[in-house]
User: Which sequence fits this backbone?
């Protein structure tokens, strides 16, 4: 491997959860360093239960294996304004490529967010799905809150500086399924799984199965992508656009994509079909009226603010109108 090629750092959160003082600060500083140099980090030994994560993937697979007419009883509403419910293959277009994204998804939020009402499937279609995913949504917020506190501390801010802007009611839990697709469709560029893009949140916590296919742009070599292979029960954390704006580009919202799985055993049959892939991203976002403007400690006479202030709702609208 080229010694200049970036790798995604692994940050062990065991000390963050069980210690105080210098040990917590070291974890926070490692996370910030990864967020500055790569924009991504693997978090291992988080406080999220492995059993809970296994159940989330199990129920996600059960959902996507339902007949189409059952899934379509909870459709993504038309347009960009409400981002909840089931999106069928071809509905969503994340990147700027000509073709649609070959994936299906199901988006869930806080039950108390009236502006983004959840679109639930019928209870008899998949019993316990609603109750479990509601619980998993708030468990995701709990873990994301710890990551946000670590980032604040590592940036030299008060530990709750960023968290105070996040009530937890404007986040998004997304279940994702990438169906099998002919390899030559991806190799030729005629189709895409999830084209190159950045996330529009503060941070994203991603849980992925063992298939692989996630790639991250090498910030040392723009346009070159490096694989982010799965690590069992690790969280893939990445910085979103809002945190890059808040920190005046000190933390990086890095372009990433989902493409061919890197290993041959992820390709099946004589007709070379990719294996299906499941992942669960959790997007942590501030409240809609929260103003995203440069934190004073990240700007000065020689380093003015690079972005105009904008609310989360305003930024969300700008990005969402490009997608739907």
Assistant:
């Amino acid at each position: 491997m080229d010694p200049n090629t970036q790798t995604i750092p692994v940050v062990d959160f065991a000390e963050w959860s069980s210690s105080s003082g210098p040990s917590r600060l070291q974890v926070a500083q490692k996370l910030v360093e990864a967020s500055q140099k790569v924009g991504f980090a693997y978090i291992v030994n988080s406080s999220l239960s492995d059993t809970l994560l296994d159940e989330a993937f199990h129920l996600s697979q059960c959902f996507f294996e339902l007949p189409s007419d059952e899934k379509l009883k909870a459709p993504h509403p038309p347009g960009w304004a409400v981002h909840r419910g089931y999106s069928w293959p071809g509905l969503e277009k994340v990147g700027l490529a000509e073709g649609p994204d070959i994936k299906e998804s199901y988006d869930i939020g806080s039950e108390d967010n009236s502006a983004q009402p959840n679109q639930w499937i019928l209870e008899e279609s998949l019993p316990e799905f609603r109750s479990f995913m509601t619980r998993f949504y708030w468990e995701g917020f709990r873990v994301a809150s710890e990551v946000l506190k670590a980032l604040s501390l590592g940036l030299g801010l008060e530990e709750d500086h960023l968290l105070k802007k996040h009530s937890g009611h404007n986040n998004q839990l997304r279940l994702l399924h990438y169906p099998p697709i002919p390899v030559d469709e991806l190799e030729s560029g005629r189709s895409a799984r999830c084209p190159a893009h950045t996330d529009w949140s503060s941070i994203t916590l991603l849980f992925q199965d063992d298939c692989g296919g996630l790639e991250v742009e090498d910030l040392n070599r723009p346009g070159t992508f490096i694989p982010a292979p799965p690590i069992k029960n690790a969280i893939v954390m990445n910085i979103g656009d809002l945190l890059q704006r808040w920190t005046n580009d000190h933390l990086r919202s890095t372009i990433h994509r989902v493409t061919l799985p890197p290993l041959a055993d992820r390709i099946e049959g004589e007709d070379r079909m990719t294996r299906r892939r499941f992942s669960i991203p959790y997007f942590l976002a501030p409240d809609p009226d929260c103003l995203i403007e440069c934190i004073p400690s990240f700007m000065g006479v020689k380093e003015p603010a690079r972005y105009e202030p904008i609310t989360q709702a305003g930024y969300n609208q700008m990005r969402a109108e490009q997608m739907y």
